[in-house]
Amino acid sequence: MDLLRTLCQLAAPAGNEAPMTEFLLNYVAEHQSSWRVQPQVLAGDEFQDCIILVFGQPRTAVFAHMDSIGFTVRYGQQLVRIGGPRAETGYRLVGRDSQGDIDCTLTVDEETGELGYEFTRLIERGTELTFHCDFRETETTVQSCYLDNRLGVWNALRLAETLENGIIAFSCWEEHGGGSVAYLAKHIYEHYGVRQALISDITWVTEGVHAGEGVAISLRDSLIPRRAYVERIRRIAQAAGIPHQLEVEGSGGSDAKELQHGAQPWDWCFIGAPEDHVHSPDELVDKRDIDSMLALYQVLMEKL
């Protein structure tokens, strides 16, 4: 879990993923010699802050978004959301502007709902603030801000250790409307002919999806994947005996939105561990669900 702790501590809100990009490129350079296959690394201006790792002869691509939710300083002491963070008076926010490090407190006006902050000085407009990371681990759980989606990134990096054929794409902006997967998908489809995807992201604990009962295979959210593809995934999961749950939602979305709306014929399925206390500083995931998530991705990348 040390790697997951490090990922959660990195500030990389949507639009400013560069710190995470730098970390991941350094991580790949340092660790790929011990991986089963050394990937081709695609990064740079053509891909903005995104990264594509190409292993062997790929058939399937895994998409994991690097960004997180957060807040942007507006005018005076006003804040605006990046994505959809939970906001409660007293949350600890951190960041940095030209005057130095920031460790401030979130405020929520009870009457208007307007977001602000308490700090010893005014923070420069445009400064990004993120939840202070308090990473807590027990024998059975991990709890921290930004498990969504640093856990999806962790899953992709662990998958890379044994992956022989496949693509891992680290995307940007997912928490605030997306925008990067469209050009990543186009490049992957045109250069490698790959058109089936898995979305390595984190879902919610609900009345039908429970912590500790296995990774969730989503049958639908606000969008509906092609049933034939999802059924293939279900058969592979059942044959492998990997604990999993089926999720059915009528709202929400992921990087799959851009695959569904794109010009290429992508199949996709969202597969992720469920978490409680979503989009808060206290996101909570059961380690059994983390284990089953990684195990299922390893099997699917071999069998699909």
Automatic annotation (TrEMBL):
<keyword id="KW-0378">Hydrolase</keyword>
<dbReference type="InterPro" id="IPR051464">
    <property type="entry name" value="Peptidase_M42_aminopept"/>
</dbReference>
<protein>
    <submittedName>
        <fullName>M20/M25/M40 family metallo-hydrolase</fullName>
    </submittedName>
</protein>
<dbReference type="InterPro" id="IPR008007">
    <property type="entry name" value="Peptidase_M42"/>
</dbReference>
<dbReference type="Pfam" id="PF05343">
    <property type="entry name" value="Peptidase_M42"/>
</dbReference>
<keyword id="KW-0479">Metal-binding</keyword>
